[in-house]
Amino acid sequence: MTKSADTKVKDRDDGLDMGPLPNLMGYLTRRAQMAIFEDFHARFADEDIRPAQYSVLKLIALNPGARQTEVSAALGIQRSNFGPMFDALEQRGLVERRPLEADRRSLALYLTASGEAAMVRLDALVEAHEAKFVKRIGLQGKVTLQTLLFLLTSGE
Amino acid sequence: MTKSADTKVKDRDDGLDMGPLPNLMGYLTRRAQMAIFEDFHARFADEDIRPAQYSVLKLIALNPGARQTEVSAALGIQRSNFGPMFDALEQRGLVERRPLEADRRSLALYLTASGEAAMVRLDALVEAHEAKFVKRIGLQGKVTLQTLLFLLTSGE
DNA sequence: TATTGTTATACTCTATAACTATA
DNA sequence: TATAGTTATAGAGTATAACAATA
Question: How sure is the predictor about B154, in pLDDT bands with cuts at 50, 70 and 90?
Fold first, then answer.
């Protein structure tokens, strides 16, 4: 209520008072995800592959012949957004679509030979990427984190 | 090498084989963050406030008079993107800029009376939002998660 | 010279609706 | 009628560079 209270607008020694913000799980996961993706982007710059692209390639590698709707749904990507994203990978010769005889509406997805070769390199990059963060929290920490994040995601 | 191996393109009982994807920390944090933000968006739809906007409002509430560069840097937002974002909040009468006499390049940020009133409602929404996820992993789980995510973020 | 804030721009990601061809 | 994939579009989020005013 005093004039001096108006003057002392902020306690600012080194930085700002973040209050409870750094304890909010949404804030925490967002910042952690950004830190992890930043490392990913740096490592995959030469290969010009982004996280979502890697997840698509990996899913097709594990499930050759899967249809677009299956892959996009499994990754939480809209069907309408999956098409153009896949086009980019296809134009680079990493993947291909093949008509499905059983259902002529559908297209089955496959890695090309070039895509298979790329996966060997990409998997190695992912392994190094992953190891960097495991080093920070330990193997037990990673297991705990997996459990907690899974529980967070899969709720009511 | 056989024709039958070509036929059995994929083991697909219910869904796709995700392989090690769900164990990658980047994938896990991304999916968790999306689940948390989805709940946030639903709760804050009526107030028309997004996570980044809440963090800006909260930071100004805790640090009245803070300058734009300070707030944007603390939240990891580019200076050039902070301006238009703040404009939207200002046009809604929640915040305001005031010239700094000490440095006429800078603008000090404040909540308006309307903004202060809004924060009471928003903080209540955040509390309920947070409680939903604490319920899934327990209070100890939240503390552990905070520790792990902080360690992940603050590395070399 | 360096910094604060602004403007312009561009690229990615995400979300929705409408369309086609098949089923 | 419903589904697979496409197209168009729009809104966020993010990133960089250049600029004017001020330090």
Answer: confident
**Exposure string over A119-148, b if 16+ CB within 10 A, otherwise e:** beebeebbeebbeebbebbeeebbebbeeb
The domain tally of chain A equals: 2
Q: Which of A37, A14, A142, A21 is nearest to B151 (CA)?
A: A142
Whether B135 and B102 map to the same domain: the answer is yes
Residue with the larger pLDDT of the pair A139 and A8: A139
Residue B36 near residue B54 (C-beta atoms within 8 A): no
Alpha helices (H) in chain A, listed in sequence order = 3-7, 25-43, 51-62, 68-75, 79-91, 113-153
Do A14 and A65 belong together in one domain? no
Grade residue B153 by pLDDT with cuts at 50, 70 and 90: confident
- pLDDT tens digits, one per residue of A111-154: 999 999 999 999 999 999 999 999 999 999 999 999 999 898 87
B38 and B51 co-located in one domain? no
A102 CB-contact burial (10 Å; exposed 0-12 / middle 13-18 / buried 19+): exposed
pTM, 2 dp: 0.88
- pLDDT (0 to 100) of residue A154: 78
Query: Which of B16, B22, B40 is the closest to A26 by Cβ?
Result: B40
Facing A74 at nearest CB: one of B15, B141, B151: B15
How close is the nearest chain B Cα to the Cα of A117, in Å?
18
- Cβ–Cβ pairs < 8 A, chains A and B: 174
Report whether A112 contacts A95 (CB < 8 A): yes
Which position has the token pair 């990493």? Answer: A94
Half-sphere exposure of A39 (CA within 13 A, CB side): 21
Partnered with residue B107 across adjacent β-strands are B99
Do A81 and A34 share a domain, yes or no? Answer: no
Q: What angle do CA B12, B16, B18 make, to 5 degrees?
A: 135
